[in-house]
Structure formats: structure tokens, C-alpha cells
Amino acid sequence: MGERILIGGATLADGSRTDLLLEDGRIVETGTGLSSAGATPIDADGLLALPGLVDLHTHLREPGYEQSETVLTGTRAAAAGGFTAVFAMANTSPVADTAGVVEQVLSLGEAAGYATVRPIGAVTVGLEGERLAELGAMAQSRARVRVFSDDGKCVSDPLLMRRALEYVKAFDGVIAQHAQEPRLTQGAQMNEGALSGELGLTGWPAVAEESIIARDVLLAEHVGSRLHVCHVSTAGSVDVIRWAKARGIDVTAEVTPHHLALTEELATGYDARYKVNPPLRRREDVEALRAGLADGTIDIVATDHAPHPVEAKDCEWDAAAFGMVGLESALSVVQASVVDNGMLDWADIARVLSATPARIGRLEGHGSPLEAGAPANLFLYDPTVSRSFSTADLAGKGVNSPYLGLTLPGRVVATFHQGRATVLDGAVRDAEEVGARG
Ligand SMILES: NC(=O)N[C@@H](CC(=O)O)C(=O)O
Ligand SMILES: [Zn+2]
Ligand SMILES: [Zn+2]
After folding, report:
1. Ligand 1: distance of its center to the CA of 199 in Å?
2. Residue 403 in domain
3. Domain check: are 400 and 268 in the same one?
4. Which of 215, 347, 353, 357 could be cross-linked to 56 through a Cys-Cys bond (beta carbons 3.0 to 4.6 Å apart)?
């Protein structure tokens, strides 16, 4: 770790300018006119320096679906997007429902070195929704699991959901719910409305999401526990969460970049890159999600990075898999959706994409302001450029991005994980250079 790096003339989230000296995995000094003696200088004139982004919702696919992504390739995608930590969803094979599997994912993350990987534990055995998984053993394992989710599936049984909320209180855990009432969404393919009728695709009603969120916030209140709502996608969900927070219920919520940016009309061409769970919704929903993020009803942005092999997407809409990759494009899409129009500023971005997701996941060492003494998890971003987003911008295995060919603002220039550059000059560095072991 002996490397010294001097980042010169960066602009912080609050607009102030500073140099940053990194050494032994920490920011050791800030201020202007720092000496670069013995350090590798990096010119950050005109670049933002922000705390490394933290994704509370990433699908790394390993173990079991390595043709889609691995911990190594997924964390390379994370680094490319300015992320220094990701929470890895449990819908792998085997499912991350035991201490053994979460420790394996943790170790794979440590070996890769591109980002801090915090495994999420399944709520129920095999995501089957029948019996609670060994939540306590996962919490006490070396992976120190604090976030539990059956994501991909909803914990639809209210008694199991109640028990899970009760159980995780003992170790300050949180249940992250994929809110989808299964009986209301059987065979669902896109948002339910006039357009789903026209296209002949089975609709996915907003109430399927909203009814589960309403139930769960009341359960969280009843047992006095923490609830997190994954990928909120409708205006009505924002209303329910706003009501719950006003009532003092301990609920947090996330929105994805794609739900802040894209609408259901994209389904018109039956291009399965736009098929995602929950589905893209109406313009009114996008507006409500943006407003909810701006007023704090929605706490964070999380990518729901969901890589799939080409064959799972290059097929008929009905047969295609749900999901989009999102780590590499996340900040650009958020910039286009809520920063460039003045709804959020860069300090808000540091909060919703770094500090708050770290706090929800009880992750230390990420998300704090860039001050002397803090771990050197940060990235440099140029918000002034724009680029045509292409497969060259994707650093993971998945190419199922809805943004290919679109012009997006901003570019990640460099990322530092624990003081080491994982991205330099806009390019993800080789594994040996990031200090990977194993
Ligand atoms: N978002 C998706 O469309 N797909 C996710 C599952 C999920 O997040 O629900 C996946 O695992 O592929
Ligand atoms: Zn989900
Ligand atoms: Zn997901």
C-alpha cells in the first residue's frame, strides 16, 4: 500500500477547491499548494472529487451465474462508474442464504480488489419464501451481513416478513424488500396501462408495488424495525413512503437511475433491453420519483445492476430476462435526470449515492467527507463533457444497457479504492495494478 498520490486542484462537493494527498489507504492531508514530493501527481483541475459511490443494490451473479458476471467483472464495472463499494444481492446459485456463501462472496471481493463487496443475505432459504434463512449466522460471520433481501422475489407472506423484521433488530439489520405482490403480477411483462393493452403485453399494475410497501411500512411500525424499499417505481409508492416517514416509521427507499430517466414508451419496439423489474413506468411516475428524491422521501439512488448474457436479451420480449446493467452509466444518468436541471446539487449526489447508502448498510469507511484521516475511497468526475455511450464504456460482462448510442453527460476520470487507483485516465486498470490477491 505504500503508494503516495497527490491529487491537485480538485473541486469538492461543496464547491471548494483543494489538493488531496493519499497515502497508505487514507487521505493524509488536504489544502492548497501541497507538495507533490515523492508522490504521483494527478491533475484534477476542473474535476469534481467526490466520496466513492456506494451501491446498495448490485447483482454480481457469482456464485453460479458466472456467464453473466463475476465478482471481479462486476466490481470492475463498479470502479468504472466511480463506485468504491457495492452490496451484492443474494439471488445467486447457491443462494446467499448461509454464512458459507456470504463469506465466499466477501473473499472474492477482497481478492479482486476493485471495490469493497458487502454481501446481502437472503431472507428466506433458497429465496423460496417459506422459511427464514440463518440470518443471525450471516450477521455474525466474517461478512457481517446487515442487509437482507430476497430481491428478484418479494417476501410476500406477511408473517414471514414480520418475523424477519423482528429477527434482524437484534443486530441492527434491515430488510430490503422487492415490493411486488406476486398474485397481481402473474405473467406481467410491462407497466399496466393503455400501452400494455395496445402492445398485447400482460400489465404490471402500480398497486402490486404500492400495496406491499403499504403493508410493510405498517409491519415495520408494528415491530419497531428498519425497512428498506428496493427500486421504487411509481408515484403512488412515493406517496405511501412520504406518509410513512411523516408518521415516524423507520423506512428508507431507493430509486434506480433508469426509473429516474426512462418511460414505458420504450417497450413499443419490443427491444428487451428495456425489460426490467419493476417495469419502466409513465412520465408522471418519473416526475414523482425525481421530486421524491429531491425532497428526501426517497433516500438513495441504487443501480440494480442486473447483467444478463446476450441470449437472454436477444430474443422475444416475453422470453427475455428482466434487468439492465447500470453501474457504469449510473452517475451520468443521474446527472442528466436531476443535476443538470437543478433539482439536486453535487452535495446531494454525495449524500444519495454515497453517505446514505453506506449508513443504511452500516458500512464504515465509505461515504464520509473527503477530509484528512478518512479512508481514501473517492473518485474524480468531469461533469462538463458529454459522450456517446457505447460498449467501450461497459467494464463488466453485461452489454444489456438501455443507454447504448445515447449521449450522456459526465465521465469518471479516476477512482481510488483504499488509496489505490482502480480507474485512471478514464480506463479501468489491470488486476495486478489494483493490488488484487488470489
Ligand atoms: N431488476 C431486474 O429486472 N432483475 C433482477 C432482479 C430484481 O432486481 O428484482 C435480476 O436479478 O436480474
Ligand atoms: Zn428487485
Ligand atoms: Zn435487483
Report:
1. 23
2. yes
3. no
4. 357
Please give the grid coordinates belonging to residue 211: 400495496
Distance (Å, rounded) from C-alpha 289 to C-alpha 101?
A: 35
| Mean predicted confidence (pLDDT) in 404-430 | 98
Confidence at 23, pLDDT banded by 50, 70, 90? very high
- Do 178 and 30 reside in the same domain of the chain? no
438 pLDDT higher than 50: no
Interface pTM, i.e. ipTM: 0.98
* Ligand minimally distant from the alpha carbon of residue 89: 3
Domain hosting 24: range is: 4-49+372-434
Tell me what pLDDT residue 139 has.
98
Residue identifier of the C-alpha nearest atom 3 of ligand 1: 323
pLDDT digits (tens, 9 = 90+) for 251-297: 999 999 999 999 999 999 999 999 999 999 999 999 999 999 999 99
User: Is 33 strand, coil or helix?
Assistant: coil
Q: How far apart are CA 53 and CA 357, in angstroms?
A: 9
What's the CATH code of the domain at 385? Answer: 2.30.40.10
- Ligand 1 atom closest to the Cα of residue 322 is 3
Segment 332-381, tens digit of pLDDT: 999 999 999 999 999 999 999 999 999 999 999 999 999 999 999 999 99
Determine the residue of 150, 151, 327 to mutate for testing ligand 1's pocket, defined as the one with the most ligand atoms within 8 A of the Cβ atom.
151
Cα-based torsion angle of the residue sequence 13, 371, 331, 420 in order, rounded to the nearest 10 degrees: 150
- Write the CB contacts of 287 (distance below 8 Å, at least 6 apart in sequence): 235
Provide the CATH number for the domain around residue 104: 3.20.20.140
Q: Show the ligand 1 pocket: residues with CB < 6 angstroms.
A: 59, 91, 151-152, 178, 276-277, 304, 306, 322-323
Cα dist from 316 to 42, 53, 67, 264, 280, whole Å: 48, 35, 20, 17, 18
Ligand 3 centroid to 400 CA: how many Å? 14
